[in-house]
Prior knowledge:
Blueprint: H1 2-7, H2 10-29, H3 38-51, H4 64-67, E1 106-108, E2 115-117, H5 128-144, H6 150-164, H7 168-179, H8 183-191, H9 197-203, H10 209-226, H11 233-247, H12 256-270, H13 275-296, H14 298-307, H15 314-321, H16 332-348, E3 350-351, E4 356-357, H17 360-378, H18 382-388, H19 414-421, H20 423-442, H21 457-472, H22 476-499, H23 507-517, H24 524-542
Antiparallel strand pairs: 1-2, 3-4
Amino acid sequence: xxxxxxxxxxxxxxxxxxxxxxxxxxxxxxxxxxxxxxxxxxxxxxxxxxxxxxxxxxxxxxxxxxxxxxxxxxxxxxxxxxxxxxxxxxxxxxxxxxxxxxxxxxxxxxxxxxxxxxxxxxxxxxxxxxxxxxxxxxxxxxxxxxxxxxxxxxxxxxxxxxxxxxxxxxxxxxxxxxxxxxxxxxxxxxxxxxxxxxxxxxxxxxxxxxxxxxxxxxxxxxxxxxxxxxxxxxxxxxxxxxxxxxxxxxxxxxxxxxxxxxxxxxxxxxxxxxxxxxxxxxxxxxxxxxxxxxxxxxxxxxxxxxxxxxxxxxxxxxxxxxxxxxxxxxxxxxxxxxxxxxxxxxxxxxxxxxxxxxxxxxxxxxxxxxxxxxxxxxxxxxxxxxxxxxxxxxxxxxxxxxxxxxxxxxxxxxxxxxxxxxxxxxxxxxxxxxxxxxxxxxxxxxxxxxxxxxxxxxxxxxxxxxxxxxxxxxxxxxxxxxxxxxxxxxxxxxxxxxxxxxxxxxxxxxxxxxxxxxxxxxxxxxxxxxxxxxxxxxxxxxxxxxxxx
Length: 549
């Protein structure tokens, strides 16, 4: 830990501070219940906190109290505009119990037309996030003397999400460093998380997503060493433990297993004639797999025994029971078309239930930048290969090559980067397959979400950092910082226009509404905006290009 602190430059620490401040800003910018499925996640956290038990996958109905968050924790409806002059006094704001408590909410079941308790589909997920969040909530209530106003408790759970992903810039730096990128490319990988407003919107909310993203980010640092030939037992065990924790968080973590297996296989294929190295690779991969299963398989085995499938799902039950219209013929082309249209927007900046979004021009420019950077990183650099002569990337004892020092470019091969970032197309393929599966049975296209790809963020940041580093050199971190500032300004505008102030009201009036409605104090938005400006200047100053003597 001391080595990590001493070898991490000030610019990366500044980027980490800015990333946390952005999370704090988005935690008060989005009204309670606005982020995706937040009221359902809150309902399950409250249930676990109150009962100290986790329900069966189909054993929980949404409560009236948590569902009221969908209309604002002050007891107001979305049709009522959130203004500074209509904010409920903080001392009078209701608790979840005041809003209806644990009484189940009813809905017209689309299969029968009769009113039934509304299922909370979040109980189909593994319990780790909900157990941790419920534990934090119980501790907070013990310190605070009992149940607190709903907006205060929800903000506390949002800040837990911010803490779970606070290390993303550090992971971007260390992953790029371990894979052999130049110093400015490593800095660009650390700054890249600052350029995704949707990431802050989702992770500064009550959801299992921050835990999954945080665990996968740590795992990506170890995989960056593995793909370069790190065969140490300690690395395999650490990667296995993190994979197991991810398996306790979400089913999509099963895709981490083939990803890490490919990372172990690539150096093995490069040195398949070296019997000792081959044996060490096989032994390390087996250690990783055994650790992953030992830590993470219990929930899935219990489901298999109890439900007959490792992944029981209320979504599958519901969509399987729906009947498509007569003559319905599913078209894979429709799913692919909607995936291409929706995923980029929802990956970068489409907030709430898509009510607010950043402008199409911002999405287009961001996609072009990422695409160009990916081509620059992944297309083989033949000139660099010739200049290296007989030096072989990934030669390893890889404890040395997996953690290059200084600013020297030890070489990041195209295939190495392709293997490293392969988790992203794996997750995208899973989204397409799952959406197609539900669409075939129901006629409804669903499950196409950009946030489902967030487990692969750090590999993507590394590829973008390497590509922009090759194109822009030492300016790449500052270009990403400037782009991130523009994207967050546009995202903030979209959210303020949708949920705060009145149509046509001034920016100052809308920010004042955020101040009046947040659980802490009226001046909080101004304090955070000032801190964001100072932190951005600190990143720009410490990451600026400096001429080498």
